[in-house]
Amino acid sequence: MSAPPRSASLRQAQWQPHVLALNAPAAYVPWLMEGGSLTARLKAHSNAFRVQCLRQRTAICLSDEAAVIGMHRPGRVLEREVLLRCDNTPAVYAHTVVPRSATAMDWPLFSALGERSLGTTLFGDPLVRRGVLEFARLREGHPLARRARAALVENGIAAPDAHILYARRCLYQRRQGTLLVTEVFLPAVLELIKTSTNKR
Ligand SMILES: C=C(O[C@@H]1C=C(C(=O)O)C=C[C@H]1O)C(=O)O
User: Keywords in UniProt for this one (predicted)?
Assistant: First the structure.
């Protein structure tokens, strides 16, 4: 089978279940492997946590998201993009997609989240089943790397020098619905210092 065209390989990442395969700097590993809510971990590493909702709209999912959410090819999804800010510094860019086939019964709170954390609706809901984490190195050409950088620039923050951004994603299921959350860790996350153990 011929290799995908170079442009396709730039647009897609190699998602894998083993974080060590990324050869990420050691400081990223505890963030990538956080087993609970990332929101809770970010709150424990800041005095003021905020979800900045960049956009929530109907869109076409990315080519390396389609199969994960049960689509044969990229199709219509409800897309949510946020910056997770710790003491006003963006630490994570997150991209969530829900197939339009999902109903409000599947994800009753998703469409009206606004600046509430998605995590607060996923963790603690007994109907939500969480899949395994996958990890990837996003090169500059990957759509989510481009969007994360653009989000920073649009907010007056210089895009990171790093040519690689480290990301993880997780598939959630509730009733008949699927929801894929991808979290792109911005280098600023490495500057966060644990402020509390009781804000998880
Ligand atoms: C899944 C979680 O929700 C977080 C909040 C998000 C949002 O509000 O869009 C997106 C990604 C997550 O980091 C979590 O806290 O673990």
Answer: Cytoplasm, Lyase, Pyruvate, Ubiquinone biosynthesis
Pocket test for ligand 1, best of 39, 78, 179 (most atoms within 8 A of CB): 39
Reported ipTM: the value is 0.97
> Rounded to an integer, what distance in angstroms lies between the CA atom of residue 18 and that of residue 103?
32
- Fold entry, domain 6-191: Chorismate lyase (3.40.1410)
Any idea what DSSP says for residue 14?
Answer: -
DSSP 122-187: HTT-TTEEE---EEEEEETTSHHHHHHHHHHHHTT-PPPS-SEEEEEEEEEEETTEEEEEEEEE-G
Mutate to test the pocket of ligand 1, among 32, 34, 37, 52 (most ligand atoms within 8 A of CB): 37
3-state helix, strand, coil in the chain (%, to 5): 25, 30, 40
pLDDT tens digits, 9-28: 667 899 999 999 999 999 99
Q: Whose CA is nearest to atom 13 of ligand 1?
A: 38
pTM value? Answer: 0.93
